[in-house]
Design goal:
The structure is a single chain. The protein is an alpha/beta fold. The chain has one domain: Flavodoxin domain (Rossmann fold), CATH 3.40.50. It has five helices and six strands, in the order E-H-E-H-E-E-H-E-H-E-H. Strands 1, 2, 3, 4, 5 and 6 form a six-stranded mixed β-sheet that branches. The longest helix is centred in the first third of the chain and has 11 residues, at 13-23. The structure holds flavin mononucleotide.
Length: 137
């Protein structure tokens, strides 16, 4: 199973989760912005990424104001998931709203088959076994 993780992280929490998946064998792709203001506004550089090279794609981002952070949802708009299964995770501190559901829905509009999701509350220790469960569809 070849998996790709496409993620955005402003302060490193989401990157930490993505790196657990990277260590488990997934290819990592980071959505980047030139500076913090651009990141908040959602002006991002989506990575060059071909979904057809993968069996599974995992999307990850922080929660901002109970929503998935805009940089990831903006990047999703530029993607074509080509019928691949897509799982999603978010990192947050307290209240994720319906962020994972919103990420999967956005991906569904861009050709993804919506898979499972997880949310990680980052004020406690990360359960890496739960993270790795995102690598199966
Ligand atoms: C602008 C902003 C808004 C946030 N809004 C929420 C929120 O609504 N609910 C929540 O639980 N955490 C919220 N957080 C906390 C982040 O989701 C959390 O720290 C996340 O793990 C950060 O991920 P990152 O380090 O990958 O950027 C917010 C953080 C920022 C910077």
């Amino acid at each position: 199973m070849k998996a790709a993780v496409l993620y955005f992280s402003l302060t490193g929490n989401t990157r930490k989760v993505a790196e657990v998946l990277g260590k488990a064998g997934a290819d990592l792709y980071e959505v980047e912005a030139d500076n913090k203001l651009y990141a908040f506004l959602g002006f991002v550089k989506a990575p060059v990424f071909d979904a057809s090279e993968y069996d599974l794609i995992v999307l990850g981002c922080p929660v901002w104001a109970r929503m998935p952070a805009r940089p990831l949802t903006q990047a999703i708009k530029k993607m074509d998931f080509k019928g691949r299964p897509v799982n999603a995770f978010v990192t947050h501190m307290d209240d994720e709203g319906k962020s994972t559901e919103k990420v999967l829905k956005a991906a569904g509009k861009k050709g993804a088959v919506q898979g499972k999701s997880a949310s990680f509350k980052m004020d406690k220790e990360l359960d890496e076994d739960v993270v790795r469960e995102l690598l199966s569809s």
